[in-house]
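Thanks for the sequence, V.! I ran Cystatin-13 right away. Repeating your input here for the record:
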Amino acid sequence: NLLLLVVTAIIVSKSAHSWGSPKVVRKFQDIPKNYVYVQQALWFAMKDFNRESKDKYTFKVVDVLKSQEQVTDSLDYFLEVKIARTMCKKISGENENCLLQSNHKMQKMFLCTFIVASKPWKFELTMLKKQCKVA
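Predicted structure:
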């Protein structure tokens, strides 16, 4: 009877954990900024940033200061980036080939931290954290 009790306790403690925050399999580690999933996370983060920004111009990444990956039940990407206002207005839908604002009165830069969870096997990307401050 004691064995059954111990086995039940182990099962309960394992399932209780899965309801909380995901288990970290590997903590954040630096990875190359040109890594394909980092690029995908950056693309997603900027799409999200531009969609929520009140600015009528789009912003794009000018520098990746830090890129890290953590493994949980997803692949989490910690991105520290410098972004700047482009000359493309949001309505154009174009933002890949946008030039940065050259007029110093129109220039605007932010330092942003994004944490994007990726489940490439499900084609799923989720914003976990977004924090920007004027650079």
